[in-house]
Design a protein that fits this description.
Length: 523
């Protein structure tokens, strides 16, 4: 059972109860039983589950509820709050400071995902304006430095290591000294995860720690070990006193719930969770957004942060949208932006309600469809790209040329054009709206964008919470969401249409291999 399934099961238990006609104590007990069974299957400690059960019962106190009280809301809130408590470590982690060297040392067993996570974290800080780098202090495993080098090169992060040295503490201090001199702000040191004997591994960790005196030591834990996470973290704590934990591989296993709750029970801050093998698959851990996402209520804060961190180039499209225009080039740029955001299923999980709605959607299919749309655009010349698409209606031969050049089919070109037409129609409306808004704002003496964003987030969250248990809620307004993320004026096109479009694209139409045959461009 994967973590998402755990969320779905809990959600279903609450929904069944709140939808049922006779919301009596027996049904309420049944719901608690189902939630507890799901948590136990996810390897959450039996004592913690017991506490959760008692707390939900005590909070709702079914017997003494006055008849007028909104039972559904009360039950939903109690379940939500108790799940948050279950994964809340109640501890604040170290926060790196700008303008100084923050040395972060990683420890953890082999295969836990240390090297991958080091690079993910360096990249995370890099995109947030910290000058970041990596040091490989694993001199035990041949190939460790190569792996870090490869990851770092891909993420464009400077790195340091040695292919010949056998002294990890020396390599670590040399690397840290070099990068401190070069005024790096985040210096991440990766250490070995294996040794002939466990004692050697722990000795090495303390030697490195003494040599570099890190500002923070982070332990990396593999979520698939479930509640054993507690024992493993204790063993490390006794030796290399770490300040925070990153739990990796929460994407594949429900036992991530077990690992997270086990660590939270020890009051150790969980700073991030790894949610996949991709560089972007690192999420800041925060109990409330985590539970919200688990239950299909989305994580708006995370989504906005994620999109902002990508620094997507929206300038031209925004300008066009404000003018009520949406060209084929705009469509291609937006497709490319969406591709940068990471797997679609993950993006959808952050949007209240959408993750569950798209449960069956295949990331590979979705991204292949988008790639083929980009191939179509790349086979157009500048005149075509900057057009509103009418040029293809007037001269249909252009479609055949583009299909041939991109290794797709005429039908796919037509579909892209009709999508662009839909977007252009929306842009026209939005352009008018945005002009009116600007006028209104001007009359009101302007508006505070931060306040607007906060209000929007609040609205989204309330929509998401309403969604649990099927009471009210429903899908939020994707157009507004994208506008908010894009910042002010226009914004990205409507995500729901994008998803719909991908679902409909590429079905049949014959022709077109998986790779473009050639993408020659004509003037
Ligand atoms: N699905 C998934 N896989 C992950 C995640 N993090 C790391 N991995 C994979 O886990 C495997 C081990 O990761 P490494 O980074 O090599 O682990 P390590 O702890 O550095 O291993 P040693 O160098 O042997 O100590 C790799 O295949 C990674 O791609 C994650 O969050 N989700």
């Amino acid at each position: 059972m994967v973590l998402q399934d755990l969320g779905r099961r809990i959600n279903a238990a609450v929904s069944d109860l709140t939808r049922s006609q006779n919301l009596d104590e027996k049904a309420f007990d049944g719901m608690i039983k189902e939630i507890c069974a799901a948590l136990l299957e996810a390897d959450v400690n039996v004592k913690l589950v017991g506490t959760l059960r008692k707390s939900i019962k005590a909070t709702v106190n079914f017997k003494d509820l006055p008849p007028a009280v909104n039972k559904k809301r009360l039950i939903q809130k109690a379940v939500f709050d108790e799940l948050v408590k279950l994964v809340d470590p109640h501890a604040e982690p170290f926060k790196p400071k700008k303008g100084k060297a923050n040395v972060i040392m990683f420890v953890g067993l082999q295969g836990s995902g240390k090297t991958t996570t080091c690079t993910k974290l360096a990249r995370h800080y890099q995109t947030r304006g910290f000058k970041s780098c990596l040091v490989c202090a694993d001199t035990f495993r041949a190939g460790a430095f190569d792996q870090l080098k490869q990851n770092a090169t891909k993420a464009k992060i400077p790195y340091f290591g040695s292919l010949t040295s056998t002294d990890p503490a020396q390599v670590a201090s040399e690397g840290v000294a070099k990068f401190k001199k070069e005024r790096f702000e985040i210096i991440i040191v990766d250490t070995s995860g294996r040794h002939r004997q466990e004692k050697d591994l722990f000795d090495e960790m303390t030697q490195i720690q003494r040599a570099i005196t890190p500002d923070q030591t982070i332990m990396v834990l593999d979520a698939t070990i479930g509640q054993q996470a507690e024992a493993q973290s204790k063993a490390f704590k006794d030796t290399a006193d770490y300040g925070a934990i990153i739990i990796t591989k929460t994407d594949g296993h429900a036992s991530g719930g077990g690992a997270i709750s086990a660590v939270a029970a020890t009051h150790t801050p969980i700073v991030f969770i790894g949610t996949g093998e991709h560089m972007l698959d690192l999420e800041r851990f925060s109990p409330q957004p985590f539970v919200s996402k688990l239950l299909g209520m989305g994580d708006m804060q995370g989504l906005v942060e994620h999109v902002q961190a990508l620094k997507l180039d929206q300038k031209d499209t925004m300008k066009h949208l404000a003018e009520g225009v949406f060209t084929i080039r705009d469509l291609r740029d937006q497709l490319q932006n969406i591709m940068k955001m990471g797997p679609l299923s993950k993006m959808a999980g952050m949007i209240p309600g959408l993750g569950q709605m798209m449960g069956g959607m295949d990331d590979e299919d979705g991204s292949m469809k988008m790639k083929r749309m980009i191939y179509v655009c790349d086979s157009m010349n500048n005149k075509e790209l900057d057009s509103d698409g009418k040029i293809f209606v007037e001269q249909p031969a252009r479609m055949t040329r583009v299909a041939r050049g991109s290794g797709t089919s005429v039908r796919e070109v037509e579909e892209l054009l009709s999508q662009q037409k839909v977007m252009a129609g929306m842009a026209k409306k939005m352009g008018g709206m945005s002009k009116n808004m600007q006028k209104a704002q001007g009359q009101m003496g302007g508006g505070n964008r931060q306040q607007q964003m906060a209000a929007m987030q609040k609205r989204m969250q309330s929509l998401g919470q309403g969604g649990m248990g099927g009471g009210g809620g429903g899908m939020p307004d994707m157009g507004s969401l994208m506008k908010m993320m894009g910042g002010g004026g226009g914004g990205m096109p409507d995500m729901a249409s994008m998803m719909k479009m991908m679902g409909g694209m590429g079905g049949g139409g014959g022709g077109g291999g998986s790779a473009p045959a050639g993408r020659g461009r004509r003037a």
